[in-house]
Amino acid sequence: PSNCTNPIRQQWLNIHDIVLLYCLQATSNSRNDAMFKEATGFAQHLRTVEKELNQWQRDIESSFGNIRNIMLSPLPRVYEEGHNGQAVPSEPEPTMVGGDVQVERLTTASAETKKRLDVEVIQPIKQWMVAYRTIAERMRRLEALRLELDSRRRTVADLQGKCERVRANLGTTRARGEVDMEITLRKMQHKEDKMQRTASQFQEMEQTVYNSLFTLIKDTSVLRDYAAAALLIINECFAAGYASFNMEQVQYSPTAGGVYPDSAN
Predict the structure, then answer these.
(1) 19-57: per-residue pLDDT in tens?
(2) Rounded to an integer, what distance in angstroms lies between the CA atom of residue 185 and that of residue 194?
(3) Spatial separation of the C-alpha atoms in residues 42 and 136, rounded to whole Å
(4) What's the rounded Cα separation, in Å, for the pair 127 and 124?
């Protein structure tokens, strides 16, 4: 009878199909995949926050530096024509725009703000990102190990199928079949040992990655505190800049001002 109708051959095919069906199912890393996917989305937000904080630092340093320079600039003076026809200033020496403004406090406020943002907000964010990148590398190694494990499982499954085929044909070619069986069994044992070692490595790394992701995700809850700290630091920076003007001694009114010639009438 042909191989297609041989009951023994058909039985071997059924067993082999069942073994392959089990062994070809991909090894799962679903919990780590799900957590890493959400952590990756969160990392994108952190990158944006870090970028904005760095921009704030640059803007404050630039703005406070410009304000300092303006405060140290001389006010324009009124000139009259002298007896000899030369222009004579109403005041012998220029008056600085800032007057009694403590301009160095602007520089100090800017530098202190940069330092505090670095230490209290940006560095913790960077540490989280370092941990995330470490996990990302582990995820790549874990995926490679998962693929290797599945490859070894398929190899073992194929060898198991070969053993079943040789065993099914022992009745007709026993002498040769026993030799083939011995060779196949030895090879299968060797491959199974490798598969088991790979499986152990995968399980250990899968747990390690899970523990790392668990800790990383728990740490995301403090982003709210970092955001609040950043706003507080910025607020204190502008308060310090404002204090350098000694405005408590000046009754400032945004509606008060001089009458310009064009609006005198």
Answers:
(1) 555 556 889 999 999 999 999 999 999 999 999 999 999
(2) 14
(3) 13
(4) 5
pLDDT score for 259: 43
- For Cα atoms 171, 177, 179, give the angle at the middle one, nearest 5 degrees: 150
- Reduced to 3 states, what is the DSSP secondary structure of residue 245? coil
Task: Indicate the DSSP class of residue 89.
Answer: E
CA pair distance 170, 190, nearest whole angstrom: 23
What pLDDT is attached to residue 89?
92
Taking CA atoms, 265 is separated from 119, 139, 259, in Å, by 57, 76, 10
Q: Report how far residue 201's alpha carbon sits from residue 23's, in angstroms, rounded to the nearest whole number.
A: 18
Helical H runs in 72-173? 103-117, 123-168
Report CA dihedral (195, 199, 205, 209) to the nearest 10 degrees: 130
Residues 140, 145, 149: CA angle, nearest 5 degrees: 150
Identify the CA nearest to 161 among candidates 13, 5, 11: 13
**CA 202/CA 34 separation, integer angstroms:** 17
Assess contact for 193 and 140: CB atoms under 8 A. no
Looking at residue 164, its pLDDT comes to 76
Place of tokens 């957590």: 35
Asked if 122 and 54 count as a contact pair (C-beta separation under 8 A), the reply is yes
**Cα–Cα dist 186/192, whole Å:** 10
**pLDDT at residue number 243:** 93
